[in-house]
Amino acid sequence: xxxxxxxxxxxxxxxxxxxxxxxxxxxxxxxxxxxxxxxxxxxxxxxxxxxxxxxxxxxxxxxxxx
Amino acid sequence: xxxxxxxxxxxxxxxxxxxxxxxxxxxxxxxxxxxxxxxxxxxxxxxxxxxxxxxxxxxxxxxxxxxxxxxxxxxxxxxxxxxxxxxxxxxxxxxxxxxxxxxxxxxxxxxxxxxxxxxxxxxxxxxxxxxxxxxxxxxxxxxxxxxxxxxxxxxxxxxxxxxxxxxxxxxxxxxxxxxxxxxxxxxxxxxxxxxxxxxxxxxxxxxxxxxxxxxxxxxxxxxxxxxxxxxxxxxxxxxxxxxxxxxxxxxx
Lengths: 66, 252
Description:
Chain A: It is a single-pass membrane protein. Chain A: The chain crosses the membrane at residues 15-38. The complex is a heterodimer of chains A (66) and B (252). Chain A is mainly α and 66 residues long. Chain A has a domain at 34-66. Helix content of chain A is 85%, strand content 0%. The longest helix of chain A is centred in the middle third of the chain and has 50 residues, at 16-65. Chain A is rod-shaped and about 80 Å long. With 252 residues, chain B is mostly helical. Chain B contains 9 helices and no strands. In chain B, helix 4 runs antiparallel to helix 8.
């Protein structure tokens, strides 16, 4: 272990601001990427459901007409 | 070989294959990335010149390396898409570009943050930094062109051409530290020489590189699945695939 205490770990030998800022920004950027991908997936699912319902309505109407 | 490869060019097969691998790759990524970064942040010794500020290396170097290799992968899939008219290779552009752009952004941001205490400046218009910034713009350009056309094939064509032309930037980034006098130090890791780094720092760095590589793979797999669905949303196979998942979601 390179640090004696939590305090020393946070301070990073005086470079705490830079180290944690770098790691924070990286984590944030990757989190945005992951969430963006997951939301795209949900959006596709919703689009698919909408299309399915439309098709069902169409089929029902066809049945009613005939 | 083509007969063997042919079934893999079917969207539904690729979709299912990626889906089967995704959880394993994602788990491996979380494990290695966690191990590499904790080792680098907590257990690796401080640098005798840079103190603890050097710990930024465990994010900076893996993301910078991947930003370049992902661009090469992007250009290769663009080439395959153009030459063999393989639509799946075209779609891979949309999966790789956002991941590559994010990693490029991280390498630039962590580099700037590391540069402030070590060089005394956030940014300098020197060869390495400028060419890496151009890489970010190339990724953004590819992504923008891909989605700029109402006919997706045209978008993929335009994006693919930009991706292929942009490859010229990769050797420029790679050798910028040798060709020009720059603020940036030379490569830490080379294939044939033993790196000038203590094992206690080298091992966590290598594990972090592996971790970021697996993370990039997982993200690309996920995005590739999304892109396949987006393109094939009205095909019958999606109904089996997506509809089933829908029913399971409804039951719970």
